[in-house]
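User: Thanks for the earlier help. One more: Pentatricopeptide repeat-containing protein. Can you show the sequence and predicted structure together?

Assistant: Of course, both are below.
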Amino acid sequence: MGTATVASALVHMAERCSCMRELKLLHAHAFRTCLHQHTVVLGKLFRFAAVSPFGDLPYAHRMFDQMPHPTTFFYNTLIRAHSQSTTPSFSSLFFNLMRQNDVAPDQYSFTFLLKSRSRTTPLIHHCDIHGAVLKFGFCRHLHVQNSLIHLYASWGLTLSARRVFEDVLKLGLEVDVVSWSGLLVAHVKAGEVDFARRVFDEMPQRDVVSWTAMLSGYSRARRPREAMELFGEMRRAAVWPDEVTMVSVVSACASLGDVETGRMVHRFVEENGFGWMVALCNALIDMYGKCGCLDQAWHVFDGMTRRSLITWNTMMTVCANHGNADDAFRLFEWMIHSGVVPDSVTLLALLVAYAHKGWVDDGIRLFESMERDYGVEPTIEHYGAIIDMLGRSGRLQEAYDLLTNIPIPSNDVIWGALLGACRIHGDVDMGEKVIKKLLKLKPDEGGYYILLRDIYVAAGRTAEANEMRQAMLASGARKNPGCSWVEA
């Protein structure tokens, strides 16, 4: 059999390769037939190892190290592989190596590199890659320019994204739906939802990505009604939603407490085969939990074949918030047994469960061991859970001492929770101390005056209650109807 025939056969088999065991056998045969440096054979084998879901990126690295003079294709393949891996910053290393070795990048080099940069921390300066695009003359390639727009969009840099968008127009290139979607995403990431909607309305053409980005913007901005209205428009426009779209829709249902619409969305998810997506199932669990439908939340959880840390945390939080402490503890044990490492959200759910159970000392022990046993530094939310726990049990002095020695900045919400506990237990003296702190943190909040006035009234101290009412009127403070700490 001639060399060309063997090479053709290896290429054919490499294109149909389904696992690394097969690839290694083909690679070994390429060595035996002296075809291991054959450009096409090596390219097919290398591509599978580097970018296939069934490949092996470290093996691709070893293959690359054995190449005497790798071409642009091989550098691009590694840049692409890392752009979609857990090590996106490595793409820059290979791009720099490529330039050091005088291998010319092409438009794909920049497209893959820009994708990887969008997944790295915003601390990395992006002006260098933008300058390289101009230097190598790829500013007239729309795919490269779109990747630049999406790079800036990924960090909400709206001015930079718009500048690239306008540069594309000045160059006489015709922007497409990808260009417009990048501009839309930039405003969404920056929290500029109304600006994003203007871009959305101006778009000459919209795809599922643009509809989903706008839905996500409304959902993140806690404007669920507008999200649901937009979803209705999307359906009327005959644009078929995908799994990511449905996550935002389910989140909107959760915010509205609209369980009936949520159930319809759930049926849509199941009928259209979207149930495989872990993030979507997590959103459904959260939605059912917020709507008080625990049986349905459990149904979704139990039906999942794959669970992420967020899945466990969401189900634990649902149980804890509804006072089902034993279920939360059982889930925690199950989670640990499954090899999932808890994080700050996990421990917060446990603290809430301890509070509902009334196991204050157990909660305090967990709080004190967080950093030592789990490597989690307590946040203001964890302190809030402990303050709530101590307040519910009437241990107000301990709560006050903890708050006055807190190593991180406190806020009015956590102090307000303590004031609410003072009202429940009728502790006037502690209430007076807490209100002094609260009026420094938020002097225009009338709800604090009202709470302390109620404490005075309950204690039969009418004169002080009237004085507090007059003080509130004199300060011009107003009651905020949204205060979550009024009810314990």
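User: Great, one quick takeaway?

Assistant: Confidence is low (pLDDT under 50) at residues 481-488.
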